[in-house]
Structure formats: C-alpha cells, structure tokens
Amino acid sequence: MNLKLFNTLTKTKEDFNPINHKSIKMYACGPTLYNNPHIGNFRPIIVFDILFRILQLKFGKGNVTYVRNITDIDDKIINKANELKISTKKLVEQTQKIYHEDLKSLSILEPTHEPKATEYISKMIDMITSLIQKEYAYFSSNHVLFESKKFKNYGALSKFSLKDIISGARVEVAEYKKNPEDFVLWKPSKDNEPYWESPWGKGRPGWHIECSAMIAELLGPTIDIHAGGLDLIFPHHENEIAQSCCYHDQNMANYWLHNGFINFEGEKMSKSLGNITIMNDLLNLHNPISIKYAILTTHYRQPIDFSNDLLKYSSNIVSKWRDFIKKATNNHLDQDFLKALEDDLNTPQALMRLQQIFNDLKKAPEDIELSNYFNNGLSLLGLVPHFQKIELSLDNDDIENMIARRADAKSNKNFELADQIREELLQNGIILEDTKSGTKWKKT
Length: 444
Ligand SMILES: [Zn+2]
Prior knowledge:
Distance between the termini: 49 Å
Shape: globular
Number of strands: 15
Strand content: 15-25%
Bound molecules: zinc ion
CATH topology of the largest domain: Rossmann fold
Number of helices: 16
Radius of gyration: 23 Å
C-alpha cells in the first residue's frame, strides 16, 4: 500500500509521492529552548519520529534526510535569560541538555541534522537581501518587513484571506509597517539583547526566516514534507512559504503535516492555566514508553486529552509487554499493522492491531513469527523500551552512556535517577564502583 498523508495545503489525504525516491526530504519545526520542553513540544517530535521511521522503512535508511531545528534566539529566550541574569547562550545550553536527555529517554531517533537558528544568520541575511532586491521586502525604521500582499499565494495554507487576517486582528499593527499584515524579517536589537551585524544595522532575525534559511541550506528549494504543530500554520508556516517561494521562485514543500493540541485533564494546555507538563518531570515519574503510548492512543491530528488516568492505563498495558520483548529474528511486519500506519499514521489503529498480536503471542509464546510481528511493530512505533536495549544488547557504549547519565543526574542532585541507573545496570550484571578518578564498572 502507498503511504497516505493528510496534507493541510489541500485538506485531503493524499498518496505520498516523493520528488526523488532516493532522496526524501523532511523538515519539522523544533522547540524554542527558553524552558525545559513540555509534553506539547514533544507530541510533534514523537509522531514525526514515527513518520521518519516509516519513510526509512519504505525508501531505505540512507535515502531520507530529516531536519528538526532548535530555535535558540527569540523574545521568550531573551526575556527568560534576562530574568535569570544569564546569557541566552547559557540558557539554551542548559535547556538543550535536558531536551537531549529527554529525547534519548523517549528513544527518539536522531534526525539527520539538528540545526540551531543562530548558526544560519548569514543565510538569513542573504535571503532577506534578495527579497529586498526582488521588492518582496522593504526596509523601514531599522526593520525589514515582508510585504505579504506581494506574494499571490499568501494565505493558501491557512485558508485566510488578507481581509480575514486584518479583520481578525491576527497581526500586530506598527507604524513602521506599510500594511498591518506585513511581517518582520529583521529587527533592531535593544541594548540588552544579542545582535548581529547586518546591512540594516545591528539586529536580529524575525522568527519565521530561520526555518526558511535552514531548509534552503540543508535541504534545498523544494522539500517533500514540512511538519509542525497546528498552532504554527498561521502565521509561522504561512510566512515561511511566502519567504521561501519568493526567494527560490519555487514551491517550498509538497506535503504540510500538522499535529493537534494537547489538553490536560480536559483543559487546553496553556501556560496561563499553569498546567504545562514538563517532559523531564514526567519522565521522572513515568516509564517513557508509557508516556509515548499515551500520546499514540490518539490520532496525531486530533486533540489529546492527556490525564493521569490515561497514563495509568498506558503503563498498565506497557508493563504487560515486558516478558515478550525480544530481539526480532527477521524484519517481518504484520500487514494490517503496517496498513494502519500507512494510512496517515493511524497509531490508535496500529496499537489495537499490536494488542491483538500480543494477545495471540501470549497464547503461543513460542511462535517466532508472532514474536517478530510484535517486536518489529514496537520498533516501528518507536516503543522500544529503555529496558529492552539494556537487557538485550548492553554494549560498552551503552554502559558508558549510562554512567555519564548517572554522573549528570548526580551533579544535578537528582539522586533518585542516579540510583535508578545504578540499579538498572546492576540488574544487567554490571557493578559500578565510584573512585577518585571516576566511575569504574565490571561484570558481576
Ligand atoms: Zn518553523
């Protein structure tokens, strides 16, 4: 079966036809690291990680390039850094460390590239210069703005007309703008803000241009899939399209995928409600696979009602798998399971099929094919539990990694986690010994 994906651009489920079968290009907007990422930041990461796995399965591992960026400069980062009296660089370093630990705990594959916005300032300046030359953008009071009405397809993704945008007050009115719907490409930095030299004075980029620049540099003018959260459709993705299409004179992305929101205990997750759930806190309380399972019980385009009950339900199911998790002896996949995932990543359906396979496997634990279906299914969903890797293939690198994670946990005074790691290693026959020259290990 062909992979089918719901394309926000056409509002239909379409067969996925890549530009080049030997070079699939996919981009997802990553988090802004002003704070330890919350579960809402991880939903797109988890679901688009599964898409990355499916694309690798269908087109070959070496034929898929996946870029997921990190936003390391924006108002929220600057405000938080000022509040903490540290540099934005330091703040991003701190949050990135936690973010990467979380990704690892959640068994998320590393994307091909993980660029940071500030590493691409010169490309952004190059693009803005070209947009001014082509008269899509203009300079006004130390700002450079994109003149939205000059791009004839503006609003094609969000289905907003310029009139909707202005009357719905979806844009900020400012005296340096020719039109209220114009958006910032470059702005002056205030005294206490980081800045870069540019043809328009010392300043910093607007948010939207960073993704356009990273895509242009790492993937090229037109990509296959661009993904992100529903809240990014307007203005972020609309503006990305305008900038990139006008710069390259080419279409930006053929398939636009958007994941739904997360509601927590029935309420929309927003900072004002004080119910932001930091992933790192959740991971200290719950098995990462239960958290992932909970997220995958809902189709990615639908809103999720995330609750403690859902987590309990998920951990109940996941805990039953433990004794049946084995290294697969071939790469066979159950066809109904795969069909569900190929149907616009229907994870609830795929989990149901996996449960049926699991029920059959429980009745016939010696059935190797069922065991392979079950374990390869878990693997494709990224539900390879932490304990599986440890139990089945603990090599020297794994052990060293765990020792490093334990040292980090100790230096962060997270002694519970440090003890947990020591315990996990012990269960796998590894004894740690803390010495003056560091932690040593040996087999029991
Ligand atoms: Zn973006």
